[in-house]
Specification:
By secondary structure, this protein is mainly alpha-helical. It has a domain at about 5-85. Helices cover about 60% and strands about 5% of the residues. The chain has seven helices and two strands; from the N terminus they run E-H-H-E-H-H-H-H-H. It is elongated. The protein starts with a strand and ends in an 8-residue tail after the last helix.
């Protein structure tokens, strides 16, 4: 049975270095360090820490074992660049989320208005759409009268006399 060995952020460097030196493992690049960590996990090591701390330790130890490799050096330099950029990004993210939520609320208000809430005409006009036609219940005249008005204002159909004149005459009495 495998004996579990708990690795924390306090002893991660010593534990990895001890495993590499005891096993006489050659670590020339980051991929080799990944293999070291996988071997450690196979033999019962448990990394109880934030994965970013483990990655930082892996990158740092890899550079210590092979400082002449430019890729290892670039990984370390990138850690410092990320740390400098993280502080600024957090502030910007907070500002963006505050303003983003405000913009979202304004958009929701506009959409609520466009769906028939208060200020619908203003919201629709702002969107470039024609203003909605007033509903029948907003006018003084009842709905039935509007229908009757529409029938009266319709274009008249030709009267029966004009139709009769065009019809052919069939043998009729003289």
């Amino acid at each position: 049975m495998v004996e579990l060995k708990k690795i924390t952020s306090d002893n991660v460097y010593d534990s990895i270095h001890g495993f590499v030196t005891k096993g006489e493992i050659s670590v020339e690049d980051y991929d080799a360090m990944i293999e070291v960590i996988l071997s450690m996990i196979k033999t019962g090591y448990c990394f109880v820490m934030d994965r970013d701390l483990l990655r930082d330790a892996m990158e740092s130890l890899t550079y210590m074992y092979a400082p002449s490799d430019d890729m290892n050096r670039d990984r370390i330099l990138q850690q410092f660049a990320d740390e400098d950029g993280d502080d600024d990004d957090d502030d910007e993210d907070e500002e963006d989320s505050e303003f983003g939520n405000m913009d979202l609320m304004k958009m929701m208000q506009m959409m609520g208005g466009a769906m028939g809430g208060d200020g619908a005409e203003g919201a629709m006009g702002a969107m470039g759409a024609p203003a909605p036609v007033a509903a029948a219940e907003e006018t003084d005249a009842p709905v039935a009268d509007e229908t009757a008005d529409a029938e009266e204002s319709a274009v008249p159909v030709a009267d029966e006399t004009s139709v009769a004149e065009e019809a052919p005459v069939t043998g009729g009495a003289k």
